[in-house]
Design goal:
- With about 200 residues, this protein is mostly helical.
- Helix content is about 65%, strand content about 5%.
- The chain has a two-stranded antiparallel ribbon.
- The chain is flat.
Amino acid sequence: MGRKSKAIVESVGEAQANLNHRYIEKRKPKEAALALDMLANGETYAKVMATTGIGFVALSALRARHERALEVRRKELALDGFEMAERMRALVAKKTEMLMEDDEALMKTPLKDLTLSYGISVDKGLQALGEQKVVVEHRTGKPSLADAMKAIEEARAALRNDTITVLTTPVERVESVVEVDGDDDEGGDNSVVESRGQD
């Protein structure tokens, strides 16, 4: 996790002094501080709960009580990310200068290797500030349009093979008369039900 956040440690200590024994800060102050630090680092509730043993309701309440400390920690993490990005930018600039003078080494060095660390550092800084807006995914093995069309056609053919053809003839008008026998012992009566088709 890196260095401990003074803001989180102070916030948990203050809560420990002011809250009763039912609160997680009082019972498990180390776990509470770790949970807050993990949340500030962008970890999921599931991971924080698995690591610290703190339940969902307690974790949500902990987060709400220490929102100010979390914000301070996020800013610290963002600053760390930007400091790292600046160091990486300087290294990339230096390496670029070296490569500009050595054509043979430049030919052997992939550009992505030079810029990847710099990009990750900037991304982490923006993520810590909550300003990451673009997510880049690299996927391999995606089906092509032709593969998708072939799969659709195969599915249609399978449906055609599994269907049963039913021939029907339309009926214009249906009239029927049904006699319903009632049971005389139970006080029923004989009645006639007529059903007519729609005109």
